[in-house]
Amino acid sequence: MDRIRIVGGNELNGVIPISGAKNAALPLMIASLLTSDTLTLENVPHLADVELLLRILGNHGVDVSVNGRRERQDEGYSRTIHFTCRTIVDTTAPYELVSKMRASFWVIGPLLAREGRARVSLPGGCAIGTRPVDLFIEGLTALGATMEIDGGYINATAPKGGLIGGTYTFPKVSVGATHVMLMAASLARGTTVINNAAREPEVVDLANCLNAMGAKISGAGTSTITIEGVHSLSGARHRVLPDRIETGTYAMAVAMTGGDVTLEGTDFALLDTALEAVRRAGAEITVTPSGLRVVGHGNDIRPVDVVTEPYPGFPTDLQAQFMGLMTRANGVSHVTETIFENRFMHVQELARLGARITLSGQTARIEGVSRLRGAPVMATDLRASVSLVIAGLAAEGETTVSRVYHLDRGFERLEEKLTRCGAVVERITD
Ligand SMILES: CC(=O)N[C@H]1[C@@H](OP(=O)(O)OP(=O)(O)OC[C@H]2O[C@@H](n3ccc(=O)[nH]c3=O)[C@H](O)[C@@H]2O)O[C@H](CO)[C@@H](O)[C@@H]1O
Ligand SMILES: C=C(OP(=O)(O)O)C(=O)O
User: Fold this and answer.
1) Are 314 and 306 spatial neighbours (Cβ–Cβ below 8 Å)?
2) Are 41 and 83 in contact (CB under 8 A)?
3) Whose CA is nearest to atom 38 of ligand 1?
4) Ligand 1 centroid to 174 CA: how many Å?
5) Cβ < 6 Å from ligand 2: which residues?
6) Mutational test site, ligand 2, from 409, 411, 412, max ligand atoms within 8 Å of CB
7) How many structural domains is the chain composed of?
8) CB atoms within 10 A of CB 157
9) Which residues contact residue 72 at a Cβ distance below 8 angstroms, ignoring those fewer than 6 apart?
10) What residues are annotated to the active site?
């Protein structure tokens, strides 16, 4: 199993190109199930989750072609992929595939809308929380579907003639269930209104793509989304938006190590709450014509309290990284996690590097230390693993991060991007 070896202590200086967003690419790829025409997605990141979803979509009958053209001649980071699903050949999403990645459950929306039925395995248990699917069941039921659980699967059936527009008010904000409602309601008969919808930029990206395919969605990015169902959707060409979580992660890395890095191809507005927190911690962040410039001062990090919230609040997917940054602050900070009940597994690993963190319920109290020391640590989930990388970059000596497959789910060419900015980071394949 691969490990990442880091020798800490270097500043980061240079340019980091930001990839297309994993969390936008996944629902966009799933939207290809809604049409028999070709959906072309540009800027699709090369990640383990994307590769797995390509397999899952292939299972349903999606024909995939990657045109191989490198959009960045020198880097080859993003790809343009064409998805064509002339007919859905299988409406079952099996346990073996769905249990590996939660987002694959979202195929339930397009399968149900286009074929009138879907049998989709319940997603696997995930380390960061229980992550139930009750909101998907309630939401699709509001569109007239019958939803039954049988042998670990959800059997979803649309009424004769297809899904029917309806009104659904989410009792709790859910990104994935909002994606699924957008896709399902686009092909329903009549108008659907979703209240308390997720407002994440990835939801807006999906709605923009669906509209380019002929859907009639308004209000994406606000809490109330209205979808007028259409009879069919066509193909489209759409560019995946930049990865705000990758952007924030590298901004926090620079704030921690010190240095001067331009994050290319990204947009401050996608994550202003998180970047304001990094500014308050002492880094200078300016908007440039090509993205963002982050200047960090390493040893002069101020303590900042954050609370995770649905967008536009501080993202849970940057909580671990921010905690990593706070381990070296000049004082005490607090990080409160309100989205997932078990998203503090990085705490005990950061402690191996010398961090002083105590947990009380959903709040971590972090007492900044003047230095961290390298150690072997274990990645427990995607964002936790990158928080260990960030801390390792600022620690004295050598850190090895095991279980790197978590990192490969969501960070494209991480070691290459960091090495180009002066870090000592390498992958060790045993
Ligand atoms: C691939 C992808 O885009 N993943 C993101 C997506 O996950 P995902 O879409 O799975 O997260 P949700 O927004 O659905 O989850 C938010 C909260 O709602 C709960 N919930 C959700 C559905 C449901 O039926 N019942 C229920 O109780 C969850 O357990 C969680 O506590 O949004 C999360 C919150 O921003 C991010 O951390 C993930 O990176
Ligand atoms: C939690 C994440 O992904 P997933 O929802 O696929 O588990 C994430 O991207 O941080």
Assistant:
1) yes
2) yes
3) 317
4) 5
5) 23, 101-103, 126, 128, 317, 382-383, 410
6) 409
7) 2
8) 15
9) 17, 78
10) 126
Does residue 76 have a pLDDT over 60?
A: no
pLDDT for the residue numbered 298? 82
Instruction: Convert the pLDDT of each residue in 379-428 to its tens digit.
Output: 999 999 999 999 999 999 999 999 999 999 999 999 999 999 999 999 99
Give the residue from 183, 201, 234 where a domain finishes.
234
- Choose the residue to mutate in 317, 337, 339, 343 for probing ligand 2, maximizing ligand atoms within 8 Å of C-beta: 317
Q: Are residue 176 and residue 305 in the same domain, yes or no?
A: no
As a whole-number percent, the residues of the chain with pLDDT over 90 amount to 93
Longest dimension (CA), the chain: 66
Q: pLDDT tens digit string along 195-229? A: 999 999 999 999 999 999 999 999 999 999 999 99
Q: Which of 234, 264, 281 is the last residue of a domain?
A: 234
| Cα-to-centroid distance, 337 and ligand 1 (Å) | 13
Helix axes 272-280, 319-326, angle to 10 degrees: 10
The verdict on 165 and 265 lying in the same domain is no
